Amino acid sequence: MLLGYPSQPGPYNPNPDQPGYDAQGKPLNPPYMDDTDPNYAKGFGFDDKSIRAGFIRRVYSILSIQLLVTVAFVGLMGFHEPTKRFAHQNPQLMIIPAVGTIVLVCVIACCENARRNSPTNIILLGAFTLCESVVVGFISSTYEAKIVLLAVGLTTIIVIGLTIFAFQTRFDFTVCGGALCIILIIFTVGSLIGAFFFRSEFLQFIMACFGAGLFSIYIVYDTQLMMGGDHKYSISPEEYIFAALNLYLDIIQLFLYLLRILKYLNND
């Protein structure tokens, strides 16, 4: 005698008039949807807005850590007298981290796999942040403490204001990337020429004002690239390291130019 399992009943077919089902007997709010459903993935945290919001939170979290590390080095080398004297007596020590920043930023910018793969990207960004923080600390040690403190405060206020502006304005700064790049190249070449051939303090002041303005625009530009949405250009959510690096460099450059501006105004 062959033993077998009894036949299983067919799928449950609810009454079409039953609440919660449509006329064909399909549930109105099914727990699973196919990818042709316009509501597919909504409410499950995978829609574009939720991905972009998570991306923005990650970028600002990384950026906050970077800035805290830099502020710590600026405070140590700019306000702690023994460390400040050591920096003044050994300026050649800045060469190593300065070269390190150039090498690391080139690696992060040019090697897509390196900046996208964890933990390599975190290690590279962490090493870059340490090198850049040491360089900024050395530079800050050459200024008076009150100027450094004022520059930190002004940078904080300006960055917060520009960030709010970038989120609120209807003007799309992402279309200005090419023009900003050309202006930056011309400004960099002009700065090098001015530093080597024209030792005018007033000219350096004018260049510092222009640099502060240029990198203020870059903060808005890089913020909108990160935001995505209705802007013409946006950065991929996978590029959170690159986005944090861009904003960090913009803020550091703004801070350094503000130091020059405040020093000139203080001398007058």
Automatic annotation (TrEMBL):
Cellular component GO terms held in the UniProt record: membrane
Protein origin, superkingdom: Eukaryota
Instruction: Indicate how the chain sits in the lipid bilayer.
Output: Multi-pass membrane protein
Compartment list: Membrane
Keywords for the protein's UniProt record, in alphabetical order: Membrane, Transmembrane, Transmembrane helix
Q: Where are the transmembrane segments?
A: 59-79, 91-110, 122-141, 147-167, 174-196, 202-221, 241-262
The record ties this protein, via Pfam families, to:
Bax1-I (PF01027)
Per the record, where are the segments of Pro residues compositional bias?
A: 8-17
Keyword rRNA processing on entry: no
Tell me where the signal peptide lies. Answer: none
Residue ranges for the region (Disordered) are: 1-29
Reply yes or no: does the keyword ATP-binding apply.
Answer: no
Protein family:
Belongs to the BI1 family.
Q: What is this protein called?
A: CLUMA_CG006537, isoform A
Q: Which organism is it from?
A: Clunio marinus
> Gene that codes for this?
similar to Protein lifeguard 2
